[in-house]
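Class, discuss our next protein.
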Amino acid sequence: MNTSTTLRSMPVITVNNMLTQASHCRVRHIRPWVRYFARTIDIFLFAMSVGFVLGMFAPSVLNIHAAFLNMIILFVWIFQESILLANCGTTPGKWLFNIRVRNSVGQKLTFSEALNRSFSVWLKGMGMGVPVLCLITLLSSRSKLKRDGITAWDEDGGLVVAHGRMSVLRSTVALLLLLGCFSVGVWERSLDNMEEFTFASDSIASEEFFAEPADGVVTGGFGTYSIKYDPSTWVAQRAISNPDAEYEFHHGNGDAYAVLIYERTAFPLSLLSAAVIENMESVASDVRLVSSETIQLGDESIISLQFEATVMTVPLVYSAYISSGEHGTVQFLTYTSKHLFDEYRRDCHTLLNGLSLTNCESEIPNNANRVVTSFEYEESTMVDRDAHSDVNSAGLNDLIEFADKWLDD
């Protein structure tokens, strides 16, 4: 939406009327949370734009510490906000919340006035983005606005901030953008957890961290199994991210993975398939069993499973070979994202067929004691999502009133 065009199409009012309305707003509509949320949306949209440009042309810049990057973005926003206030009299966030900034005679700010105001907000209101300090300055500014009806930067510049009524459409869009701000943070933490557990970061997926046996064979389970694989296709390592597993595999050319879980306890083979699905349903959504059959692997009868599940919003396809008997229980699972499954289907199937239940010597296995891989690491992320969903279900006005009342108490 073209902000300047929209503003030009707004009804024209006289300077006296505008100042009168602004004066009433100062007395009757002191709304610090509205102003804070408007600025949050401004910075969020600006940060997303900057991140997109840097990601395209200078991705290495995004690797600096997040707190330092936030400080840089807040400083650069000073100049962008000044340009918008001088030309439009508002910013995207302020426009959405129907907030206008004018000087003492009811006109839009000059660039010099806007720059002085933005710099003062950055210093006195945002604390330059320095952690802890910014919280102190924000609370101090809120107290002054509630007490005096005007912020320090508007008082110094003789400026007037006018609040207008918000339509249902504006409220809805503002709420969605605020939810987007909160969701981005949760999503980033979810990705971090997911990388630590299965998909791994690029450094973990590199050969430097994967101990690849030269002969393309790994053995384990006190000599109860071996896995023959193609080293040019799969990279193997002793399990790091999964405490229940003995080995992990990473496809050398893409995003396919495998994990081998061994435990000495035997379980009835007829119950294993149901146990795997039930376990997944407790931690994942949209779990669906695609196929289940008993096949022969050498002299052993094993269960071949294929099922789909959504883990942390990522749809995955699992293919698994499960065996249980005097040798203990072996679970060998391959997985990849659903849209890549056809691409890696053959390689995953070949890797599964490399499993052999034999009596070869092995290193001491992990002390695994559960039937399938535990996804307990997800619980903290799920709690975060539940906590945010309570806020997300409220309307924008309820959110503002709740925050204001909570801080006053």
Observations:
- The first strand starts at residue 99 and ends at 102.
- The chain has 14 helices and twelve strands.
